[in-house]
Amino acid sequence: MHKIILYTCSMANQQLIKGSLSTIVLHLLQSAGEMYGYEITQKVKQLTSDEIKLTEGALYPTLHKLEAEGTLTTESRKVDGRVRKYYRLTEDGKKATAERMEELEAFLLNMQRVLGLNIKLSS
Amino acid sequence: MHKIILYTCSMANQQLIKGSLSTIVLHLLQSAGEMYGYEITQKVKQLTSDEIKLTEGALYPTLHKLEAEGTLTTESRKVDGRVRKYYRLTEDGKKATAERMEELEAFLLNMQRVLGLNIKLSS
DNA sequence: ATCTTATGCATAAGAAAATTATGTATAAAA
DNA sequence: TTTTATACATAATTTTCTTATGCATAAGAT
What we know:
The structure is a homodimer.
Chain A: H1 13-16, H2 21-32, E1 34-36, H3 37-47, H4 56-68, E2 72-79, E3 82-89, H5 91-115, E4 118-122
Antiparallel strand pairs in A: 1-3, 2-3
Helix pairs in contact in A: 2-5
The structure holds a DNA duplex (30 and 30 nucleotides).
Keywords (chains A, B): DNA-binding
GO molecular function (chains A, B): DNA binding
Protein name (chains A, B): DNA-binding transcriptional regulator, PadR family
């Protein structure tokens, strides 16, 4: 009768991701070649030990926007009776991803300066 | 007649700051003891070589919210004919700041994992 | 057999947080 | 005396995320 849902997350951590979601998506696609939406959510979940959870309500609109911009292309395939929509970087998308990553590194460097943290980036 | 405005900024870098603005503000206040709004904008500008610009439209509502939450207290003083509103952490605010910093470090660690960056934090 | 969970997509309503554009006011510099 | 710098504030809009919901199939549990 009662459905008990446990929210075990790292909370406010979540809001820090604002603004970097698309960069994360682009980077994952660059690494993997192609991925489908659900796969992306699971990958992030796995990489962060459940600490960062991409919600579908945030992910799918982001993917659609990137596709509309010409950054991504899609291809739907039926696997095990279910349709998966695979995303892949376009040539423009590869350039965009490189730019985004540089921006992110610059941002992390600025965070270092502002917060007095000692962050060392390598690769 | 013509006013030429040069936008030299690092653009998208800007949107990465979303979500971490209040953490930045809290950290700066913790370091300095007290600061007024304009001073915060100039400090961030200086620390990041003009790369991150806190707009007043973002900063002031954030300060007001933190004050309403009991995280900050204010004191207005007239200096050189102009009123400055100094902000300072409350006791609760000091705890909140420590928590926020931990969250930020956890976030940076997660970014490392997701993006495959090698970030080393020290202090 | 049937109910739940996992997989997989999508969108709509609402909230949160930023940008952009104003507005007021004083002091200093051009 | 006009512009720039200092110093506060808010309103309208946009962006972006959360929450809620919907549909559908497969697999596992009861």
